[in-house]
């Protein structure tokens, strides 16, 4: 049908591009993973199999686009991929970047599922994972560093809350509602104290992968480090 009189419909397509010479962040996030994690009975607050699966999927994506990616950072059901400001990947087209990243990630996640959940839990075709994706443009390195810091701080806040919440339920026998009420309005130091005194958990002794999330560098190495302290090192040369 090439060059037919119908071809004019192609003119309706728009090709939005990310501004040149600006950093690109593509963030994917699991759709309704609250329910997804319930359905597959993820261990709470952190199922290490699910985290390792997210990391392995993201690592394969980083390796596929290794010349374009500075680093990637993940926690829970999300991952952010930070691209060089001079990348020409897919001509910087927003629809291509968002759709291809999320579809490659999702393919990896499904393909690798059995490796991490082994035969304990099988994926059910009525409950397959979906991820959303967005592409955001950042003008300079300072904002990019703040972006990564924002996600890192979020990991800490969420993990401290979730560890305390599930500690109260699993170790102290509280109901979800009681745990929620107990934590309402508390500061970080209060949560640390509740965990220590009431649940017998020293938050400092929790695994780094839970407390710090996962940073994947250009080489595809997965690190669980203090992103804020390492921020200048991570972006050296970019
Ligand atoms: P949305 O579709 O708006 O993103 P959501 O249910 O996915 O909704 P999120 O804010 O993305 O909400 O939260 C993801 C949820 O997935 C967490 O709150 C947690 O319940 C669950 N989850 C993700 N990863 C893990 C994990 N490794 N172990 C246990 N639970 C997890
Ligand atoms: P782009 O990434 O730009 O889409 P492409 O290689 O996917 O590049 P398309 O114009 O989308 O290019 O064409 C898809 C190609 O895939 C076809 O030209 C054909 O070679 C191949 N293909 C797709 N479906 C089939 C099929 N069912 N049987 C054989 N070949 C197929
Ligand atoms: Mg969301
Ligand atoms: Mg989600
Ligand atoms: Mg999320
Ligand atoms: Mg094609």
UniProtKB/TrEMBL annotation:
Keywords from the named record: GTP-binding, Magnesium, Metal-binding, Nucleotide-binding, Nucleotidyltransferase, Transferase, tRNA processing
InterPro entries to which the protein is assigned, alphabetical: Thg1_C_dom, tRNAHis_GuaTrfase_cat, tRNAHis_GuaTrfase_Thg1, tRNAHis_GuaTrfase_Thg1_sf
Domain of life, per lineage: Eukaryota
Top EC group: transferase
Residues annotated for GTP binding in this entry: 29-34, 76-77
Residue numbers binding Mg(2+) 2: 29, 77
Textual note on the cofactor: Binds 2 magnesium ions per subunit.
Reactions it catalyzes: a 5'-end ribonucleotide-tRNA(His) + GTP + ATP + H2O = a 5'-end phospho-guanosine-ribonucleotide-tRNA(His) + AMP + 2 diphosphate + H(+)
Gene Ontology biological process: tRNA modification
EC number: 2.7.7.79
Cofactor: Mg(2+)
Domain tRNAHis guanylyltransferase catalytic: 6-139
Similarity comment: family membership: Belongs to the tRNA(His) guanylyltransferase family.
Function field: Adds a GMP to the 5'-end of tRNA(His) after transcription and RNase P cleavage.
Name this polypeptide is given: tRNA(His) guanylyltransferase
Native species: Hanseniaspora guilliermondii
């Amino acid at each position: 049908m090439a060059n037919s009189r119908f071809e004019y419909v192609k003119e309706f397509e728009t090709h939005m591009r990310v501004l040149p010479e600006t950093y690109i962040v593509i963030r994917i996030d699991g759709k309704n993973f609250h329910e997804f994690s319930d359905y597959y009975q993820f261990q709470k607050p952190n199922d290490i199999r699910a985290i390792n699966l997210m990391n392995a999927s993201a690592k394969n994506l980083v390796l596929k686009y290794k010349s374009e990616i500075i680093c990637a950072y993940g926690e829970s059901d999300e991952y952010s991929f930070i691209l060089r400001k001079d990348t020409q990947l897919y001509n910087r087209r927003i629809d291509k970047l968002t759709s291809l990243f999320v579809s490659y990630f999702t393919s990896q996640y499904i393909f690798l599922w059995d490796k991490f959940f082994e035969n304990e839990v099988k994926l059910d075709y009525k409950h397959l994972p979906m991820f959303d994706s967005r592409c955001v443009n950042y003008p300079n390195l300072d904002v990019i560093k703040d972006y990564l810091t924002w996600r890192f701080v979020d990991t800490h806040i969420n993990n401290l809350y979730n560890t305390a919440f599930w500690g109260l339920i699993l170790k102290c026998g509280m109901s979800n509602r009681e745990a929620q009420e107990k934590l309402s309005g508390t500061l970080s130091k209060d949560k640390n104290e509740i965990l220590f005194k009431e649940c017998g958990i020293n938050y400092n002794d929790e695994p780094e992968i839970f407390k710090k999330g996962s940073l994947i560098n250009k080489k595809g190495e997965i690190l669980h480090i203090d992103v804020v302290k390492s921020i200048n090192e991570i972006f050296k040369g970019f």
